[in-house]
Amino acid sequence: MADQQLTWRGAVAQWDRQLFDVVARRHWPGADRVLPRLGRAANHGVLWGGAAAAIGVLGSARARKAALCGAASLALASATINTVGKWSVRRPRPLLEGVPAVRQLVTQPQTTSFPSGHAASAFAFTAGLALESPGWGAAMAPVAVSVAFSRVYTGVHYPSDVMAGAALGVAAGFVVRRLARDAREARAVPGDERKAAGAPALPDGAGLTVVVNTASGTAANAGLDVLRERLPRAELIECEGPGLPAALAAAAARSTVLGVCGGDGTVSAGATAALRAGVPLAVFPGGTLNHFALELGLTGYEDICRAVAAGQAVRVGVGRFTPGPADGADVAGADADVAVAGADVAGGGDGAPGGAGGADVAGAGPDVAGGRGGAPGAGASADVAGAAAGGAVAGADVAGGRGGAPGAGASADGAGAGAPGAGADVAGADVAGVGVGGASADVAGAGAGGVGGGGSAPGYFLNNLSIGAYPELLRHRLEWAPRIGGGPAALLAAWRVLRAERPLRLRVAGRPRSVWMLFAGNGTYHGTGPTPRRRDSLGEGLLDVRLVYGGGRPGPRLLAAALAGPLTRSPVHTATRLRSLRIGDIPPGTPLAYDGEYAKAPSAFVLDELPDALTVYRLS
Q1: Can you list the positions of beta strands (E) in 376-442?
Q2: String of b and e for 128-147 (b: at least 16 CB within 10 Å)?
Q3: Whose CA is closest to 312, among 176, 196, 211, 168?
Q4: Does 209 score more than 50 pLDDT?
Q5: CA gap 227, 608 in Å, rounded
Q6: Rounded CA gap, 375 and 373, in Å?
Q7: DSSP character for 115?
Q8: Per-residue pLDDT tens for 518-572?
Q9: In 3D, which of 69, 54, 297 has the Cα closest to residue 188?
């Protein structure tokens, strides 16, 4: 047995040396200058770090994610080679006999020969890149092969050293991909959202129309074959760009269940169409980040198809701003501040319910619900227990019914009727907040004339909404990206925003405020700062509102807010949880961002939370 092992090793070593000698004797025009320099450029991963930085600046969000995976794969491969590979197989470097002096490195490596660290790094970075972005991986593959070959060409590695290093690098890429997938699945932990009774079960997909946004991050490669196999009678519609809202509205109008495949912005547009049509929503994640899907516990298409087939769904809260982005209708006649009773953005107070801790973000307004008759335009009661005179209710039944015609008095609870009105649906949900001592402030309207006197439909958001620094950054990035690329546009936009001269002057809950940014999350986010990242539940029924006050420069203010902690009050940062908030006196042209989309903000609007407003399919 020992003789056979020695013979096997001897044959491999002989083959290795013969192939090494063939490469040493072969001359390729121009290679003597290019390959040694390329190998030196890859020392310590410098070449691949530069490539990752360039891809991050010039590429899309998906390309940046791919570059990060490539860098992680390289780090794993390098750590494995240098701690295990080099010291477990102590193979001497090749003798340089026959290698032309012009190819030889000035400083020869002192480590052992097996396996090749350069080849491992090259193939690890390229594999990690290709697994997330095949196009960028194909572009880098010739460079990786050239670097690996240069190690034999310059005489510092045998061919088997390079092949073993390349194999280890590719393996590292697959390991990182699996770890990233496991991390995403670990994030997708279902919350305590309430089960939706009576969600339609579609065993073969009949009645389901799925609108696929082909421009979303990974929608084109989202694995729709699973959907076609599990729900063969489902209708799939592919579209992108300006035609997406119309396609979603048309699909929702004729379907039992509306499906949507895309990123967070696409899912938000689908939720808006589903709310207005009063149909459930099936979410098939096809974007780069998929915040909403992950936080709801949605991962693979297999599970989502099973949920649709079995009729298993949950109810989630939805944020609303009125008037919405369709037009810039002003919020007229706002004598009463629509907010949580007894709260104050800058002053004291006992805080919002659930440990809001510190500053309350609202102002006291009259309780216009609970049986009172509102003045004309005041809006119907938030509890919708009876009729309200002059209710400006024009929106859809966002709690599960079909859309109501303008002035029909459609309400979240489906009871009562408002008198004809011209305003948007501001009072169509139980958005009562709890202020000091638990006093109720049922948000039903905003004084004479109501909200949205022009009849504009409200806008909805599943993740968050903001005005101030972030929408400005998004506006500049969208403006410059077509000309200089997404990465440079983001850097230039950040530089432009951080050099802004003055903060926004707004009226928040009836009081003038100077702010760098206002953030409103649909549900409580964890983490510090004005724009945190993670929610545990989408059925909480509260807005997470955070403000960064004006004064000074935006950079230091935003950094100080990031260090202030969640749900706290500081000289620069206020955060609380509530049911509704009125924002007024917004300067013309102020940008508004919601779920990654950009629009011009109206001169004033009301933010409120619609608890359990949307039915979304998910396995129990």
Answers
A1: 433-434, 440-441
A2: bbbbbbeebbeebbebbbbb
A3: 196
A4: yes
A5: 35
A6: 7
A7: S
A8: 889 998 887 655 445 678 888 888 999 988 877 666 666 666 655 555 555 566 7
A9: 297
